[in-house]
Amino acid sequence: MFSLTKKDRPIVQLLLNAGTCPRCILRFSCVGSQLLYRHPHKDLMKDLQEFLKNSQEKEDTVCLDVAHPPCKRIRLEHREEGADDLNQNGAIPQLPLAGDGNTAVESSAGKVCNVCLGILQEFCEADFVKKVSQKVISADYQFTSFVFSVSLPPQLSVRERAAWLGVKQQMRNLGLPLAKDDIIQLKEAYKWIIHPQLSEELGVPADGKSLFEVSVVFAHPETDEECHFLATACPDCFKPAKNKQSVFTRMAVIKALEKIKEEDFLKHFPCPPSSPKNFCDALEIQCNNGAVFVAGRYNKYSRNLPQTPWIIDGERKLESSVEELISEHLMAEFKADSFNFSSSGREDVDVRTLGNGRPFAMELVNPRRVRFTAEEMKRLQQAINDSSDKIQVRDLQLVTREAIGRMKEGEEEKTKTYSALIWTDKAIQRDDIAFLDDIKELKLDQKTPLRVLHRRPLAVRCRLIHTMKSEYIDEHHFRLHLKTQAGTYIKEFVHGDFGRTKPNIGSLLNRTADILELDVESVDVDWPPTLAD
Question: Which residue intervals define the domain Pus10 N-terminal eukaryotes in the entry (predicted)?
Fold first, then answer.
């Protein structure tokens, strides 16, 4: 059982006369019943009118048999001393009416609410909910639940403050205590009304943890005009920001309202607020699905293919990349807006990646399709492999955001195996390179290579060559198989980079050495999990 009581009558009467809608009046009366807010606007108006008539004769009047679960509230100001006390005999002084009750109802019924700017009026009706639903359905997303969010015009905070100060003034003038210092948040009340309607239209439940978000962005043409006095009173709160059309953002307005003194606010804004000229506009109805993450391993067989697009000063150097050859298919199948590619390290454009391949992951942003069977992922993998002879993908699978952290560990903590084809200026025999096989845990000091100095900070990095195995080819060529610490610059270990890597193959052999070909033979990261063929 929930009821408005006689002590709520001054608040109801004042706000009705000021042009406040019934649902906002319930909010300011701290009514926490979700079901009550879903009653039709006209029925609520009639109930409030009956309450005003009957409250002069009875102590408790309008009673509604509904549940009232815990609700979220927004605190407007600190509680005043004695706020919970009635006058000594418990009576409520008579509130003079501004005209008869019917006049108040008629004047409120056809106007834009002076507090919510119409959001709890026409934007709660079935026609608007159908409009939102049609927008969601036409966007063609896969989802099994939804979370609903709403963005409100910044001046709503101003109008709520003004309405509350108006109530506070009226109660003080009547010699009445003010027992409440918080109200039901507008967003919360709006969701109470919208959730069941939208859930019925979409055929799925509302769920606060859902990854599929339906959002409505409201705007109002009088925002700057109504908030301008705050910029004069609290200029430090309003600073131009990138990508913001107005300095009057929600957070800036709230910050200013926390700083401005009550007497200064009363001088510049009517309390309670006057009725606006226009309803809010539903500026945007947006849908967004949480990101989906796909992982796998790729082999790169071309010595003329970068890992990511190679663009310098706006000019593309090569026509494709590993990233693009994979993302093209994933983007098409998942119907995503964009993607973010990452991998366990990277190879140069002229380096092949062989063996089990290099682990990679791709974040697909705002995908329309999110559900894929294992068989569908296999077909997608095959489509990528059939599209190019430059790369191959294996173990393609859906993963979680958290799982990607295991891949990133391999960039610095794991080992990698390479095969390098090396040239020497002086002739060599098998015995000249045999000693390399006996070297274990060789410590290197590698100053940032000249070729990457434009994108990496200058530093000396200590790295380890765990093992080496040489393979003689002819007097000027041999192949070297290396197992190294992740992050080792192999090319520089071979030629020395003008002495920036010490020791190096050239210094160990006491002759000039250079690298002709380099292959990555393994990246020792046990992720993602291997899948059966």
Answer: 113-287
Q: Which amino acid is at 285?
A: I
**Lowest-pLDDT range, 77-86, 292-301, 376-385, 470-479?**
77-86
Q: What percent of the chain clears pLDDT 70, i.e. is strictly above it?
A: 86
**Which ranges of 203-321 would DSSP assign to H, the alpha helix?**
223-233, 250-259, 262-268
**Mean pLDDT of the region 103-121:** 76
Rounded to whole angstroms, how far apart are CA atoms 50 and 42? 12
Identify each DSSP E strand in 344-459 by its residue range. Answer: 352-365, 391-399, 415-424, 442-447
Determine the Cα–Cα distance for residues 220 and 282; give it in Å rounded to an integer.
Answer: 9
Closest CA to 470 of 494, 486, 449, 487: 494
The Cα 331–Cα 324 span in angstroms is: 10
Structural domains of the chain, with CATH = 8-55+113-226+269-288 (no CATH), 291-412 (3.30.70.2510), 416-523 (3.30.70.3190)
Q: Are 327 and 339 in contact (CB under 8 A)?
A: yes
Highest-confidence range of 72-76, 395-399, 450-454, by mean pLDDT? 395-399
Other CB atoms within 10 A of residue 194 CB: 21
Q: Looking at residues 242-263, what average pLDDT do you find?
A: 87
Which residues does 370 contact at the CB level (< 8 Å), separation at least 6?
142, 143, 211, 289, 292, 334
443 CB burial (10 A radius; 0-12, 13-18, 19+): exposed
Predicted local confidence at residue 58, as pLDDT? 58
Report how far residue 15's alpha carbon sits from residue 24's, in angstroms, rounded to the nearest whole number.
9
- What is the rounded distance in angstroms from the CA atom of residue 328 to the CA atom of residue 364? 11
The beta strand positions in 255-375, using DSSP E, are 281-289, 292-300, 311-312, 315-316, 338-343, 352-365
Between CA 306 and CA 441 the distance in angstroms is 31
- Is 348 labeled as catalytic in the residue annotation? yes
Query: How many alpha carbons lie under 13 Å from residue 470 in its C-beta half-sphere?
Result: 22
| Rounded Cα gap, residues 352 and 345, in angstroms | 13
Q: Out of 182, 207, 264, 348, pick the active-site residue.
A: 348
Q: Is this prediction's pTM over 0.90?
A: no
